[in-house]
## 1
Amino acid sequence: MSNQEGRAPVLGDASADDCSCLSIAPLGEDESVELARLFKALGDPVRLRLLSMIATRGGGEVCVCELTPAFDLSQPTISHHLKLLREAGLIAAERRGTWVYYRVLPEATDRLAAVLARPEASEGGRK
Amino acid sequence: MSNQEGRAPVLGDASADDCSCLSIAPLGEDESVELARLFKALGDPVRLRLLSMIATRGGGEVCVCELTPAFDLSQPTISHHLKLLREAGLIAAERRGTWVYYRVLPEATDRLAAVLARPEASEGGRK
């Protein structure tokens, strides 16, 4: 996989008029592989909490030194989880001096939210 | 975990006025564990395609005998993936005679879509 500046390719456009909900048409093989990689990156509680801690900053950056103290885990372990989030294209990383700073790439989570959305749910048809 | 009729507990209500987006407030430990279990179930291309094939039926049921021919995989392998989706609370299963029939439980994917949503994205603030 070729990353440019630590950023994976965005999986298509998630514009409002381009519903790619999995409940509208069966997912193709290639799309399923791409999406599964993203979902798998979210399939760990530590990575989910890390992503959430970074995402709550909006477009702002978070130093890894601010993330590690929230966990009973070593900094290498935290860095490994952050690497997996970065490789999935969910966050971007930039090293400045001693520390690495992370920010969210919301296009990836937007894409997953669009895939999971149900058209009828947004029209009040939620069961 | 106690399942009733093959259905996992729904992770809270996903009502419109109860935003649980991960970009609003950091996820707690318990919620992260629950959500990660769901995301992990989606972190496989075969399971994603199976879920999509079932979800495109709306509230309808799909016989496992209709799902298996779409894959170059044995029926036991397909059944294993379906079991993981069921244990995660994403689908429900009912055996009738020879076959097992599956239907989606949209509350689970609704919950994940809500967690991934960004309030600003729905207001046209998508970057």
## 2
Amino acid sequence: METDKTVETASEQVVNPWEVSAKDGGKIDYDKLIDQFGCQRLDQSLIDRVQRLTSRQPHVFLRRGVFFAHRDFNEVLDAYERGDKFYLYTGRGPSSEALHLGHLIPFMFTKYLQEAFKVPLVIQLTDDEKCMWKNLSVEESQRLARENAKDIIACGFDVTKTFIFSDFDYVGGAFYKNMVKVAKCVTLNKAMGIFGFSGEDHIGKLSFPPVQAVPSFPSSFPHLFPGKDKLRCLIPCAIDQDPYFRMTRDVAPRLGYSKPALIESSFFPALQGENGKMSASDPNSAIYVTDTAKDIKNKINRYAFSGGQDSIEKHREIGANLEVDIPVKYLSFFLEDDTELEHIKKEYGEGRMLTGEVKKRLTEVLTEMVERHRMARAAVTDEMVDAFMAVRPLPSMFE
Amino acid sequence: METDKTVETASEQVVNPWEVSAKDGGKIDYDKLIDQFGCQRLDQSLIDRVQRLTSRQPHVFLRRGVFFAHRDFNEVLDAYERGDKFYLYTGRGPSSEALHLGHLIPFMFTKYLQEAFKVPLVIQLTDDEKCMWKNLSVEESQRLARENAKDIIACGFDVTKTFIFSDFDYVGGAFYKNMVKVAKCVTLNKAMGIFGFSGEDHIGKLSFPPVQAVPSFPSSFPHLFPGKDKLRCLIPCAIDQDPYFRMTRDVAPRLGYSKPALIESSFFPALQGENGKMSASDPNSAIYVTDTAKDIKNKINRYAFSGGQDSIEKHREIGANLEVDIPVKYLSFFLEDDTELEHIKKEYGEGRMLTGEVKKRLTEVLTEMVERHRMARAAVTDEMVDAFMAVRPLPSMFE
């Protein structure tokens, strides 16, 4: 069976939508992943180009390499430079009520892209996927999708340019026709190879990849982009979603569609250390957007893996190991001030700053961020959710 | 792999939606098929009961054993006797422009059931299936679906009680939710076992069985049967469709739904003889509803396999072999007069009637039937098709 071979070949590190595991429980080797997946590194010249084209400082996640890989992002920028439009597509599988910080990353970044490039955006809530994978009821999946939509909206998207949809609500019509067209192009062997499915998996899993594929094609949204079937798609996502879009890009030319471009992030590490993604099953592995200031402080102090030394003397002497230090890692995601971050890394790395001080600063940064999110979310009304989810034309022209 | 075992076990005769082949190229053994599939024989007491409940003579296809097997048809009649409702569900894969007589059989029978029991009916046009299996474009599949709908409507269905839908148009909403619920309950191994799929098949095929399954559940049609989620479903179909509904019946209780009941027909034989179904790829294997009187006469005279003897002398002496004689077989489907049919069988079987005379009578019967169909179809307007395909409540009460 092709599956077994593929899984065996990739046994050193496995990254797919359901499993992220590094070699021997260590760190994910992102350089190797780029080779393994066949995507491209997002280098400084591309980041400089984004700065030039958008006339603003690139997002922290670009400057600091959180989004580190891409597929054809350069082509999207070429076209943008010529005045050609594109649209953004991202999504979320609504499997839990409360989002953690890792969940926010693609949305924070997508909001930046939408603002910087002034482009329309579709956000897919894969409630059908979660219903099938997590064995949630249809109703519960849809409820979670709507709850998660509020958190997504709280990230600050522009309602005039953003369409949020639930698969259970939206699958049908042109979207379903594209699902069928995609499904025709993917053999069972191929799907098992790409996604690692087995004979014991249910056929719902086999049916799902086309659902996640087709928002890459503007013709799936005839009401959103009427007459804009050539609009190029750019997908910001974590790199574990790459298998879906490898499949999509493989199939697209056979359907006469453009391949979606991708811009892909590394994983946000668990509090306990950088070996994989955070786990919803262990609430102490992550900071949630629902955590109180006290929760945040406790979690950081008790669980955030420190690269500091065992004794103050030793720490003063050799400094912290920044490579494994979670507080520094988290600050590099969320502390916007480059100068302050460099200062902390230098002082901490050379032993003049202690773990407790770094954790204190991180606690401040995250508490403020979570509090801001909480307030923004509290202001999201049901009417706003309805407005984001209303099927209507989106402006595909630049303002 | 479970598939191989299943295929091997069933290697004597294979009957599934894509293949019908008897042992050693002979006749399908329907008794054995009943055992193989685990369905029930439709016996005389059930037929008598239908007569009693509907106060009319049972359809020729019941009286003559064309519909010969069932699943829980007795339960549907029990409920009907108590005053409980049911609805009919049948369908067609629109793979060709012109229907042949074999295609009409389930529709002729379904029309009778609708009239006799005064019940609502849904007719699924699986344009998505044909797009995937026959590699037709979406547009061509939908065009064929609409053309076929005209032939179906020409069979005389009651527009106030009949909803015809194309999957490409209708999949979505509650229908899609039920597809996901069904898909969750069927493992890939199981689907490969039931349907004989292989790793080289595309995932669209694996995704399709839930599409054919869910019209068995009234909750898939919330606009048709509002508040009637308990309405029982009865499916008239050829027995090659049984695998879909074995799967559906297996899954239904796990979803809290009633199992659909089935009433299943044998196959209409090819002109060349009774080993399987007619083939669209050989136009001389079947009489089409578009054939002219001359076509019909020619086809019957040239291709209809005769059970008559080689010489008139021998024929007069030992008579025709009615078991293999196609003209007699066809007459037993379409000659409504029981007395005349018995007369022909007796005279022909005992050598007093010659093949030519039987073929002549068959030509008259089919020419009249095809001519009647042609006229009815010519009267079907686009507005009528729209009316049958409009999503609207159907009366689920008895008149």
## 3
Amino acid sequence: MNPVMMDRMSWIAYRDRIAEDSPVVFLPCGALEQHGPHLPLGTDALLATAVSAGVAARIDGIVAPALSYGYKSQPKCGGGQHFPGTTSLDASSLIQITRDVIRELARHGVRKLVVVVGHYENQWFVTEGIDLALRELGPACPLRVMRLEYWDFLTEQTLARVFPDGFPGFALEHAAVIETSLMLHHHPELVRMDLLPDDGPAHFPPYDTYPPRPQWVPPSGVLSSARGADAAKGATMSQELTERLVAAIRGEFAD
Amino acid sequence: MNPVMMDRMSWIAYRDRIAEDSPVVFLPCGALEQHGPHLPLGTDALLATAVSAGVAARIDGIVAPALSYGYKSQPKCGGGQHFPGTTSLDASSLIQITRDVIRELARHGVRKLVVVVGHYENQWFVTEGIDLALRELGPACPLRVMRLEYWDFLTEQTLARVFPDGFPGFALEHAAVIETSLMLHHHPELVRMDLLPDDGPAHFPPYDTYPPRPQWVPPSGVLSSARGADAAKGATMSQELTERLVAAIRGEFAD
Amino acid sequence: MNPVMMDRMSWIAYRDRIAEDSPVVFLPCGALEQHGPHLPLGTDALLATAVSAGVAARIDGIVAPALSYGYKSQPKCGGGQHFPGTTSLDASSLIQITRDVIRELARHGVRKLVVVVGHYENQWFVTEGIDLALRELGPACPLRVMRLEYWDFLTEQTLARVFPDGFPGFALEHAAVIETSLMLHHHPELVRMDLLPDDGPAHFPPYDTYPPRPQWVPPSGVLSSARGADAAKGATMSQELTERLVAAIRGEFAD
Amino acid sequence: MNPVMMDRMSWIAYRDRIAEDSPVVFLPCGALEQHGPHLPLGTDALLATAVSAGVAARIDGIVAPALSYGYKSQPKCGGGQHFPGTTSLDASSLIQITRDVIRELARHGVRKLVVVVGHYENQWFVTEGIDLALRELGPACPLRVMRLEYWDFLTEQTLARVFPDGFPGFALEHAAVIETSLMLHHHPELVRMDLLPDDGPAHFPPYDTYPPRPQWVPPSGVLSSARGADAAKGATMSQELTERLVAAIRGEFAD
Amino acid sequence: MNPVMMDRMSWIAYRDRIAEDSPVVFLPCGALEQHGPHLPLGTDALLATAVSAGVAARIDGIVAPALSYGYKSQPKCGGGQHFPGTTSLDASSLIQITRDVIRELARHGVRKLVVVVGHYENQWFVTEGIDLALRELGPACPLRVMRLEYWDFLTEQTLARVFPDGFPGFALEHAAVIETSLMLHHHPELVRMDLLPDDGPAHFPPYDTYPPRPQWVPPSGVLSSARGADAAKGATMSQELTERLVAAIRGEFAD
Amino acid sequence: MNPVMMDRMSWIAYRDRIAEDSPVVFLPCGALEQHGPHLPLGTDALLATAVSAGVAARIDGIVAPALSYGYKSQPKCGGGQHFPGTTSLDASSLIQITRDVIRELARHGVRKLVVVVGHYENQWFVTEGIDLALRELGPACPLRVMRLEYWDFLTEQTLARVFPDGFPGFALEHAAVIETSLMLHHHPELVRMDLLPDDGPAHFPPYDTYPPRPQWVPPSGVLSSARGADAAKGATMSQELTERLVAAIRGEFAD
């Protein structure tokens, strides 16, 4: 079947792997969210899965099925909930499924879990789900969890190469150069560079409003231009992410 | 990108499809659950998605990402929760994500939704999720929902051909002839016919126990033998499911 | 007071029984749901209680008060929620009261519990309630639970006698021959045979719709005719249910 | 069938009553709670139902099935949770079932509901359930609800007759003169006057402790002696409750 | 910083106090609720905090920040929810924050907690929060909790002095003599005696209605006149509350 | 009483203000969380309230009572949950109280609400609470909400003055120069500059672990040194926050 993807593995293969090697299990946390006209709605789940699979292949890890739906899109990081196609969960739903999946992995005997967030808005609710799971499992449970947003593993050097005119910061990197380059590397057939919008970078005030003001967000849903994205940059970043994640995970789970 | 799979479609393509054609949207509801040594843990999500995609391709529908995790496995229909790899949600989690996704699809303007259950244990919790969503959306919301377990669309004639010695009933059809044949048709690379167990059919009393008795369930997790499964049967069943689902959906959403 | 019905027993009598004999406790799970013009709304709770009391009388068991309200009626098994009088709970409510009652019985020292479902729609939510209770109580708790739908204990032979023209299956047995006969046996004063409707059997497609289509369901709420019901059949079935339940419970709780 | 008890009435009879007369519907809220050695565990539900039925018979009302389980017993009003047999719900469970039942009654067209509390501890959670139901139903819903603890309808004159040595107040009236007399009137077969304990009145400090101190509560569970209870007092109080409830309900629902 | 108020203490000071002296911690539970034209909306939190601080100063206790928002105001005890300014929580919210705060105090090593209710409507939901926290913490947790409504510590003698014409009972003491006198003692700058309304005492029937009838409640929100309130009475009552609370707490936590 | 603080205002004064001026209402969201040896546990609530009150005084606004307890402290922004004194809420509790308070303010007629977050970890749960409230209130509700973390209103120029050696970023600004300076300005009596720790700045990897590693966090709980903090910087920052918040709020609520 498949040595990495848990849903393409039999229970016996999975059981044996867990019992023998205590492998690192990855839980990618994505979303179904607009990513401009040139990227697919599933970009966050696809990239979180691709990053997880790349690392898992290197360290004999296992990737659980991604959480395909994430927390509600916010204007400043994902464009907001007014875009058709963006399909989001309430906080309590995301918290609970995270908790439930971790409870079950612990029952299987998993001791090393890496929760890979690919959708910025998920971070805090996933954190609560992890916390509730560990509280319920109790202090005797040997499960240890890392949670990370994968883009935080890009070095300044790499960002400098990807953004020769200066890295504008992660804040507007929605459907922009980083995600588009990574998609061109991992899923080129799902990128339509011919549809790249020219929306300039969004400018946001230092607060949020509810109901949100759609006029704050470029109509394309892209928060800053993806011009400059290419597959080579995606490969460079993907390789760095893999290397640095491998090192961090090995270090964290060494003892 | 992809004309059928919502997560591989841009939000603009999706928006236009919804606005122009009012297409049928499919929500496959799967599970991560043991399916014997010969089928992968993700079988239920894979088959619910395959069935949905087959129908959607015929009627210009759209398939939302599957719910990859389902309700707790029960001994009589899925072997039970004692198998490593089976990774299940609490009832309230499954209810809520179903409700949330439907609430969002309604916001997009979706009017025709088909919830395709591929994991028997999901049925009632998905039903509650649909009910809560519709109650919240209110009677003025034009969304109409069909919910179905796909195997209920197989005719007696087809079952007679698939089971030349007599159809033993759906009760024990977990990781058995139907699912194995369908997987051989849709995902042959994920089936290990060489690992097919010979466990005889399980015999269950007319009640359930909690905690469950693992000894009721064959050690392989297969409730009745998959001997007799082949890709041709899978193709036959797949074709019938598509035809009959197309007809039912067209009939239901015609008015 | 009363040696069987827990609510008609003093706490001291109950305490002594639990401490001395470790009796089997029964929790009937009913509903308040239309049962046609000839049966009362409380039929499911009345029958679940009657079956429980009959068995309890034989094995010195105790019957806790029935859950009088159940999960939402579905068109195919109970006619659906559009009937006045049908008074149903949300899933989470039914799950929680089941969990709470079981948690309390465990606190009392009950070790043997039989949850007797008399309303088909309750089954999965009661199951979740049992699971949540046992998870909370932890593996050291000695409580063991059986859950059953009482009609599953009728043998084919008896069904053949009750349905001389052939048993049409449990699917349409709502307010039909089995329930009407059992009510004629247990509560004849609550049956109005003079009001028996002649609605032919309902025909349902292999899917459900939401909102439901009331036209699928006979206007009387009876899914197949109760013609042929009589008290003698009720007595026969009641006796068989008692005998077979006694045997199953004794077997299950013997070790 | 039965003209008063909803669960012993067909849905058609119920529907016609609601449509024609807009009758008052009663929802008795009881408990399963120790009531000393001389009264049954179900006393609160039995009395709330008996009071409701008495009033309903006078004003052509309908009595819905009692909530048989109530909120956790407190030392000062019900003896506390340490008594075997006392079987209580978490707050959220009681709140939700109250909300659900009221939502359903409103759907049936009920416009006049009287929630009759027979278990002191239920009061606030039932209040929240009513509030949540009305909030969900919205201001256009014509349903109006009265909530009452039945003993508050006893006049000082009657209490003076029932307690010739002076009424000690409702605080300790658990399984004492009022409840015992009412049970002797309504359910004499369920009272064991021969087992009446002689525990003196309980004395409580002006605070509560958690975990509770069982030594605060007389071992019998009776907070003050039921000596002096008799059926005649029960009949007197029952008659007064009926008269005064009839008057209050007629007054409240007149406009 | 401050030796009594936890929020004005550093974590190190707090930690050392908990470790060295096992001090009594107080959790005042207030509300934001109308208190007539002469008292501020925060009266309940202010008085619960003042009472707690007075006692804590005597026994080297620590006062946690008050719960500033409480359960929904009821007509008979707080005037009801129709007053602007009254800002209340749903039951589940109040239950959960109570549970959460107690869970955290237990983690800090607190063994003696006094929950001081200053808003009548909070009592039962705070009780449930305490119960849920203790259930979660388990029987091995050394935390013991007292819960009290502070006015219950006033003696009959003091009430006779405060109400020379006879104490009408706590029922109507909302924004009346007791609260006004205590505010004149603790927070005179927040009392406007010149705005004291002359509304006579409210008269309520022995039931509640939903939706509530605002006409039951004096338009000022004061349930009985605060005429007769003065700072001296406030000082007298405050002193008695402190003395008697000190004694009760010392007694309860002595062993 | 008090013209700004809602809890020190009568309901009549509040009602009149809301009706006449449609004032901006502020909801400060704090925490009870370790802030090193030199700042009190309540720092976040105190500062969020001080900022709110400063702005409210300028624009005739009203400040509701702060949420005194916040979401669980995280190592990278607040030191983590292992510090005694840190007293945090579960996500669902914080979400619900935020939702409830906003629902109530909307009922009062409030149209302009500013939610002032003073505890970084609160942000996403407060966001969900706002979203749930607005969803429940419906699109016809005129309430508009701003949510902000107050420090985001500091300009680069001011930060350059406050940090002459270069602003290290907000990431480690927990109990450091900004908060300490602001406390010296607003609450000097609650700052112990003599206890200022010399812990160097914390260094965190680009991921989080659960259970957290306390060794990542300086033992004092201060993430970077507060050396350099003084009251003058606090006054400068406070003035800028007020000015810029006034401008933003006026602009946002002008139309």
## 4
Amino acid sequence: MKNDMLTCNMDRMEDKIVTFSKFGDAGHGGITRFSLSEAALQARAEFCNRMKTMGAEIKTDDMANIYAILKGSEDLPGVVMASHLDSVRNGGNYDGVLGVLTAMEVAETIVTEKISHRRPVIVMVWTNEEGSLYPPAMMSSGVVCGKFDKKAMLASKSPEGKTFGEALKKSGYEGDISNRLNPKEYIAMLELHIEQGPVLEAEKKDIGVVEGVVGMVNYRIRTYGQSDHAGTTPMKYRKDALLAAASALKYLHQELDKLDSNLVYTTGEIVCHPCVHTVIPDFVDFSLDARHQDPEVIRQVVKVIENIPKEFDKCRVEYELQWARNTVAYNKELVGFIKKNADAYGYPNMNIYSGAGHDAQYAAEMLPTTMIFVPSKDGHSHCEPEFTPVENCWKGANVLLQTVLDVDRK
Amino acid sequence: MKNDMLTCNMDRMEDKIVTFSKFGDAGHGGITRFSLSEAALQARAEFCNRMKTMGAEIKTDDMANIYAILKGSEDLPGVVMASHLDSVRNGGNYDGVLGVLTAMEVAETIVTEKISHRRPVIVMVWTNEEGSLYPPAMMSSGVVCGKFDKKAMLASKSPEGKTFGEALKKSGYEGDISNRLNPKEYIAMLELHIEQGPVLEAEKKDIGVVEGVVGMVNYRIRTYGQSDHAGTTPMKYRKDALLAAASALKYLHQELDKLDSNLVYTTGEIVCHPCVHTVIPDFVDFSLDARHQDPEVIRQVVKVIENIPKEFDKCRVEYELQWARNTVAYNKELVGFIKKNADAYGYPNMNIYSGAGHDAQYAAEMLPTTMIFVPSKDGHSHCEPEFTPVENCWKGANVLLQTVLDVDRK
């Protein structure tokens, strides 16, 4: 690290993490902070207060996304640092919120150290990234970027039957549509996030230079057998859909393991009918989620799935594509800034693709965007044991700070 | 068939099947007739009326089991033909009820044809064989034979919270404990039942000569992995409990297939956690039910299960025995009568073991017992497509009739 390089303040970083972990504290190390819930509104109020104290102007758009704006010295498009404050049920204190807290720390450093900047520097909070109470995930970035229909989103219902639209109205954060993130007033969006995987930790890297979000396909594989009594049907007459599903699952693992070693694929969900210990299953349905940055590898995955044998263990096998997502490549210049700044601080780093979805992937369709990853202890995310040491958070904030200043100079 | 052999009446047999299929008619070919429900009480009333018309005396015991007694010419222990009138939800018109209807037809033939008999001939209805509303199955035979505690059974609750005891009180069929089936007043119990499997049909046999009920073991097999994000966890770091469960299931099938070809085993139930398509499963639990008449084969099954590798695909594997049942052998003399009578009528027949449980297996612990199986179309049971052609029902009744007369001569 060059001696003259600016850094954020590690104590302040820690204070932010500790403070925000109280909003929605579930009592055993994690939080439940659904978007626009009381806990989320507490976190938003704390965010707005702190940003106002720094001299930021607060705006919100029609999806309750918050923009805390530190004015620049010139009338130029702004640099946005954005993430989300909401969590999954019994989530941790890092997924999402760390992107907001590091952005706040970057802003506080700029203000405290009186760093001059030409462009507005914006700390932004996306509403309902997790979609835990009101699906889908990445709801407001999807609306702002034109992926989702706003009316349909307002009608999205919680399991208790409350709509997102009602929660939005009640929140006090509903603002004007003209305030939405847009490519005219903003030049770049940066999002810091925990990796949510074990790679950085295993490879002993402090910073993940995120090149993009991997493409994915999601299939259902189904096997059709014959339901009969467990005690009275000789083996030779059986068509056991669960045995066939196990065969199909093993077959797919075997074939997919032959493809690129960076491919990740998951058979995470299984449904068995009738699922009674005394009855031979007649129907099994399992999911297959496969992700890779190279569309050619995804094509190979599709080929494996679509060439699966039509029958296993005398049971018919079918597949159905549920959805697919193309690889999203982040802005090369911004990715280059992240890499340069991590190197300049002397932080071990590596290029990485995001396997999970983030608001940044939608934002990338509108304006130059990239992400910074920091390590996740044991790769945990979406659970209470989620953890990133404060020093890693601080290092991430430092890289974010320098990148904001790089963009400011553009 | 010898020219002078008595037979039951096929038209009367059909009338009985058609009549009883109305009680609890579910509207699409089958019935829902939970024990002591209104539909079951209608069937009981029809049974009692018809038996009274034949001159039978009706008694009930404290579990509402019904005994319709045709007096014999001597004061000797009686011959019981018994089965049940209750069904599972959306069950068929044969499982259970056919045993009662063939017994009624045998009684009607004896009365109509004025066949003299020394012993009382009893048509008996067991209460709550299915245990569909008030578990467990084979409830009252279990109580009468001392397997189940009556107090606990009276407290058994339906999903709506009504107890079996209340239903019993309300039914009007609660009788005296001294009327229970017992080895002093009764010399044999015979139960005709559909096979509930495809063997007789496939082997083109009219009659299954049931030698006993197979022994069984029931295990749970569990795999323990690590839950992580589907998109962010490289394959080499994964511990996928569902992949491990598929491996364990395939391994067990492969090893158990090496044992006796009459062994039946079923992996019918599977539970996966968290069962989300974007999360690697950390826990899977599946059932293994294995049945065979030879305790040695069951011992081999136990050996296979208990020697399962402790790990598949980096996941820990555990097993747990849930319950076991020893093989029940039916009375050899009675089994011999069934065989002899089927042969005498010229009905193709084969010896067979029951894979399912029946009231007869509990009765067998008190007095000489056996069963007659008739074919199940496509092996179906516990479902609406359950079907046995009336000619097969009638043939079964004929064998039952001759066997009652054999026992009468003892």
